[in-house]
Design brief:
By secondary structure, the protein is an alpha+beta fold. The protein is built from two helices and five strands, in the order H-E-H-E-E-E-E. Helix content is 36%, strand content 21%. A hairpin with a 4-residue loop joins strand 4 and strand 5. The protein is elongated and about 65 Å long. Bound molecules: zinc ion.
Length: 117
């Protein structure tokens, strides 16, 4: 027996019916939409926080700090906007215009990203 994805009551009537009624359909899509928006909002806010941390440290456009320093500031290494690989094969993680690269020595190189790293 099919059940309504919103209220979980058994569906009666036509076999191709998905929801009990328009109210359940509207509520269901409103909930899905809200969850997606909130998920995206969380990621955006993490990205902006990351960018703010990098900017506040990297005020002269090129700096390096221990990785632990960024972690203590609440930097989220899972959140970045892209990856840039230099000709020498070094990966820079982009957070909008800010870029960083984690070295084997546990230090993070920070640069402001302008297409010519
Ligand atoms: Zn329903």
């Amino acid at each position: 027996m099919k059940r309504c994805p919103f209220c979980n009551k058994p569906i009666e009537g036509r076999s191709d019916k998905v929801f009990c009624d328009d109210r359940c359909r509207n509520n269901y899509y409103y909930r899905v939409n809200s969850e997606q928006k909130s998920f995206i909002r969380d990621i955006n806010s993490k990205l902006l926080k990351n960018r703010g941390i990098l900017r506040s440290i990297n005020s002269n456009g090129r700096d390096s700090v221990p990785k632990s320093f960024l972690e203590e500031e609440g930097f989220d290494f899972q959140c970045f906007t892209g990856i840039y690989k230099t000709k020498k094969g070094k990966d820079y993680y982009l957070v909008y215009d800010q870029a960083y690269s984690v070295g084997d020595d546990g230090r993070v190189q920070l640069v402001v990203f302008y297409r010519n790293l």
